[in-house]
């Protein structure tokens, strides 16, 4: 928080009146299942987007990011995409959603500081959207109804605003998703936004994307979550993500299913001739992932950590061979992890096409694991490796 507040004071010459933060997430298992109404497991981790802000008396918005040199300035009645400052498009999309949902906004100044590595697949975009929604809620208190309608909300006698309940957190997740889909142009699911809002310390989030049910189960205390950044930056605004979603939806429609969640592995095999090869492989990955999440939840609850780790390796193999959202660097990282006895499982995490791997490692060996993987990655690719031992944390506040 301190960096965001300091940046605000330096740029605007005043103290911010409100602060917000939202964590990134690590997708534990369930790759590209969310927009297929499937099942997914995620963790909110201790990499954050922090925002500091203060209201203005006009309808202008000025945004400053510690990661980019130029501020973004616009009027609320003239919001347009600006590809020279793509980071600001996420905030613009969120503000448009609030206006479309009936909220009268005034202008504000805000600064952004992120500790989520850009392009690593830890969902800095969703964290930015969630942090923006919460900062605006603190600046101009509003509530979201289950249908998404926004309305002004009075502060409590203490000057605070009511905490978000579960139903409203889900409404916030849907609003953030809509901003990313409709304005930014990434046809993503709800996984990232739900994870940032519903995280609980030391708990795995279990999300049913068909009925939007959210449950939690403990992450074993002797496991460490190690994230290894390939150094290949992914950019989901590109066409690969949207292509995979379109092929998943086409496969479901061809098989007369509302979504791939409704397709079993044997039904997919029976209908293979109806699908193009690309559609079949996309569907095989997603249907297989949903099955892996179902089995994985049982394993986690039963303490079968070795079995759960094997599912992570299987998931990565499917990403590489079926969904084609891996890359050579991610494959090298997973192969190196497989050689380490302390590693139970590893896979790419997030959208793929670059980014990072998730590794479940025995906690006492986590630092040694990082050292050995970095050495192997340097030898194999010539790249220095960034990695982090992530703490599993509570959701946005």
Note down, in words, how this protein is organized.
The protein is of the alpha+beta class. The chain has 2 domains: 198 residues, Ribosomal Protein S5, domain 2 (2-Layer Sandwich), CATH 3.30.230; 178 residues, GHMP kinase, C-terminal domain (Alpha-Beta Plaits, 2-Layer Sandwich). The protein has 11 helices and 13 strands. Strand 6 and strand 7 form a beta hairpin. Helix 3 packs across helix 4, helix 4 runs antiparallel to helix 5 and helix 6 packs across helix 8. It is globular, with a radius of gyration of 21 Å.
Brief summary:
With 397 residues, this protein is an alpha+beta fold. The chain has helices at residues 2-12, 86-100, 124-139, 166-184, 191-198, 239-254, 265-270, 277-302, 305-323, 328-338, 366-381; strands at 18-29, 39-55, 60-65, 72-75, 108-114, 142-144, 150-152, 203-208, 213-218, 223-229, 343-349, 356-362, 386-390.
Question: What features would you highlight for this structure?
Answer:
single chain, 397 residues, alpha+beta, Ribosomal Protein S5, domain 2, Alpha-Beta Plaits, 7-stranded mixed sheet, 4-stranded antiparallel sheet, 11 helices, 13 strands, globular
